[in-house]
Amino acid sequence: MTRSEPAAAALPPLAGHGGTSEPVLQVRDLVKHFPVMSRGVVRRRVGDLHAVCGVSFDLFENETLGLVGESGSGKTTVARTVLNLETATSGRVRYRGRDLTALDRRRMRPLRRELQIVFQDPYASLDPRISVHEIVAEPLRIHGRYGPGAKDEVRELLRLVGLNPEHGNRFAHEFSGGQRQRIGIARALALHPKVIVLDEPVSALDVSIQAGVLNLLMDLQSELGLSFLFVAHDLSVMRHVARRVAVMYLGRLVEIAPARELFARPAHPYTQALVSAIPLPDPRKERARTRITVQGDVPSPVRPPSGCRFRTRCPTFARHLTDSERTACVEEVPALVDRGGGNPVACHYARNVTLL
Amino acid sequence: MTTTSHGVRDVPVTDAVLEVDGLTVEFPTEDGTVRAVRGVGYRLDRGESLGIVGESGSGKSVTALAVMGLLPGTARVGGSVRFEGTELLGLSDARLSDLRGSGIAMIFQDPMTSLNPVHTVGHQITETLQRHHPGLNRRTARARAVELLGTVGIPGPERRVDAYPHELSGGMRQRVVIAIAMANDPDVIIADEPTTALDVTVQAQILEALQTARAETGAALVLITHDLGVVAGHTDRVAVMYAGRIVETGSVEDIFYTPRMPYTLGLLGSLPRLDRDEERLTPITGSPPSLLNLPPGCPFAPRCPLRRDTCDDTEPALRPVGPEPHFSACHFAAELADTGAEDVFDTVGADAEALARYADATTPDEPPKDTV
Amino acid sequence: MTEIDAPGAADSRRPAREHEFTVEQRSQTRLVLRRFARHRAAMASLVVFVLIVLWAFVGPHLWHYSYAKFTPDNSQAPSRKHPFGTDSSGYDAYAQVMRGTQTSLKVAILIALGSTAVGAVWGAVAGFYRGLVDAVMMRVADLVLTLPLFAIALVISSRSGGSWYWIAAVIAGLTWAYVARVVRSTVLSLREKEFVEAARALGASDTRIILRHLLPNALGPIIVNATVLVATGILTETALSFVGFGVQPPDTSLGLLVSQAQTAVDTRPWLFYIPGAFIIAIALTINFIGDGLRDAFDPRQQRVRQ
């Protein structure tokens, strides 16, 4: 753990993780544990919740990287730790030559202009007591940019995200869910950031509303050359917006690949199960599909399984492996490397399967 | 029986297990009356499955609660709900709960609303069994409970039968609810967003368990969901709800391949797809109307790109479009034949001019001020 | 209100006319006021309270007797000339009760404002930082709460010469901890809200988060508590003055008036019962107003009343 040196040297590129240009954001071996406390009067630390365990990825300029996983996969923790909203237990997050995990709040502050976040819940993420104008103006005020032209700037931001600039004096609760999410996006854009982390930005919205917000986000990304780290549980949304997709399971990345390839020919049994579990809004296709189903629920991140964390639910492990082959799954943590399929996958017995 | 609000006529009564006709639900509030359901009608034949889809506030869940007689006392319910020919509206609570015990089973989004936290799941299943078959002895009931838990895919049912609900995961609890529903050997299962709170891999398991339950009991299914994908794979017919009414209904193929109501069209077009590339989604602009003081005319008109003056004056009735079970509530349904969402809706995203101005204002790379 | 408003609305394919579908949205403040207005006891109390305040502060300027001036009439029963009668020294009781009410109200309001200001900031800081800061700050608050309010107030104010603001300061110094506890628990739940994290992600300082986001959102409980403190303030001041350690003559307060009249309860009951009635009226109306505000701020109360 080399937390002491803030000016991290350029990190070696990750093999097979795509992209030709210099990455904007490099995440290496990110680990985040949360203490688990005992109940009762004297609260002792009785264990750790392994939310994120050794996650590495690069985010390139002008791309949307999707981070997908079910609840408990640690995807939201990655999003928050990357932005230093949670302190990393270990690992590095390198942005513009600096290791963010080593920065305290004061030194992090100027970088906040360039690294922004949009939250999941459009109801909870906007302060109900201040006007929409003030919500969008807040980043400008905090960073001392609220000058004479700021009023117009805010109006322009509201217009940009598809809201009526005349409505700036209203309060958040007067808007619908989709409009509130647009307000959150306007706030994130106010400082002209380079990277925006989107933490489940559309999962609280109805589909007809969600589509508008997705279109907006995609326009912003492509026209402004922004880099998005798009966290979501919805694979269909992911496939639509992301150029590359990283799949998380119980704190680890299990597969990372360009979106089309990932969904057309997933290599990790978990990705296969995920893709196969998504119902298609097409009755004939849906009825004709063969499914790869997994058993049971996600194990507790307090005591994750040894070796491959997916093995307890893995259909390949359960049905297709010999006992000697299973030893590797139980004893060895599979590394996230290219195993011949063209993209990194963390499974000892990865095999690309066509599902759609 | 002659005509129902969805226009089905002269169908032999014997086949219908559940008939809902002109159902209305109103909630008096401080601000006035909320008309949550405004004349919903459908019929469900024995063993058939009907999907009810709609976005939040469309009235789909309220409809289900009204059918089950589970609405709060302040709600005003009108119309008719017949289960195997018996009118349910106005029935006493005792009779209704009898019926809920045997004829109709309900599965909610949150399994804890139907499970009692202080009893083991086994106890809850045997209790239901014994209510249904008073002669059943305890040992047989327990054996049957274990069997039911196994059927819905709970691993180690002999152990889990003695577990309390809080010891189980969300997916497991929902399976227990399905097992209880099966214990009743119901004729109708109404599932209200049964998988919304669950992860996709668990959702797939639950939907499978639900299919098993139907296969075992031969029950008809009303599946209420906002997820068009779930409906596509698990129901024979679909009803699309908007602003408290069914605006289009038909076979799944009708709805998914030849929708004839702009709302359905927009809904399908706004759905990102896993199985194909779409360039742009077609969002429906605006929000659903408030069901308080709804003005006359088609409630979808303010969001509809096809809106004409007629739409503001008269609310279109559900009328047949094409082959038998396909009905649509749009004045211009005929024009929508062979139309895709992208022909009707805009693919609006960011405001282009504002975007260009914003891009200009973005300062070229300035290194962050070094405060270290 | 539509999802996407003005931009693109000029597009010819878009519906030209829009229904006004949504109910007219009300701001939080208007909602609270409306709910308050429906609370009958609270509304009536508010009217009575405002009348008392007006009477106490404007009345003395219109009344032809001063509270500090002798009149030639001693120990008179209420009459048209002296509606509340006079005492044995010839003071006009009407003028005195006006003045007394004014002083008591000033003390009570100062107590409420002072202890609310201190307590709110104290509680917000403790709840926001949690951990050691919270532990230390709340132990201090607990300590203040364990102090026997009345005894301490007695000791300190006996040396202060009886000026009303000094008495108010002493009582406020002993009651702010109540506010601190309420605000702390509110802030503890508020700080987990996403909008606080959003502010942090923007780089907002702690001071900004507390002052701009946390305290305004804790306003409901703070206001409700302040009304309760006004009532507590009135009663504490009354008690202090009654035992002679509050406001000193020639100035007067409701407590002092009651105290001075206690020997005359049988002979000149108006001197005792009229200021007493004012004390009760003020405490009671404030409590009802507090009740009304609590209901109005609590969204769970929304549909209870028919």
Automatic annotation (TrEMBL), chain A:
One of its GO terms (biological process) is transmembrane transport. CDD domains: ABC_NikE_OppD_transporters. Keywords: ATP-binding, Nucleotide-binding, Transport. Residues 1-15 have a biased composition (Low complexity). PROSITE patterns: ABC_TRANSPORTER_1, ABC_TRANSPORTER_2. Residues 1-20 are annotated as: Disordered. SMART domains: AAA. InterPro entries: AAA+_ATPase (IPR003593), ABC_transp_ATP-bind (IPR050319), ABC_transporter-like_ATP-bd (IPR003439), ABC_transporter-like_CS (IPR017871), Oligopep_ABC_C (IPR013563), P-loop_NTPase (IPR027417). This is Dipeptide/oligopeptide/nickel ABC transporter ATP-binding protein.
UniProtKB/TrEMBL annotation, chain C:
Pfam families: BPD_transp_1 (PF00528), OppC_N (PF12911). Residues 11-21 have a biased composition (Basic and acidic residues). It comes from the Bacteria. One of its GO terms (biological process) is protein transport. Residues 1-21 are annotated as: Disordered. The chain crosses the membrane at residues 41-63, 107-128, 140-158, 164-183, 222-247, 270-290. It is a multi-pass membrane protein. It is found in: Cell inner membrane; Cell membrane. Residues 105-290 form the ABC transmembrane type-1 domain. GO terms for cellular component: plasma membrane. The keyword DNA damage does not apply. PROSITE patterns: ABC_TM1. Keywords: Cell inner membrane, Cell membrane, Membrane, Peptide transport, Protein transport, Transmembrane, Transmembrane helix, Transport. PANTHER family: OLIGOPEPTIDE TRANSPORT SYSTEM PERMEASE PROTEIN APPC, OLIGOPEPTIDE TRANSPORT SYSTEM PERMEASE PROTEIN OPPC. Belongs to the binding-protein-dependent transport system permease family. OppBC subfamily. This is Oligopeptide transport system permease protein OppC. It comes from Streptomyces mangrovisoli.
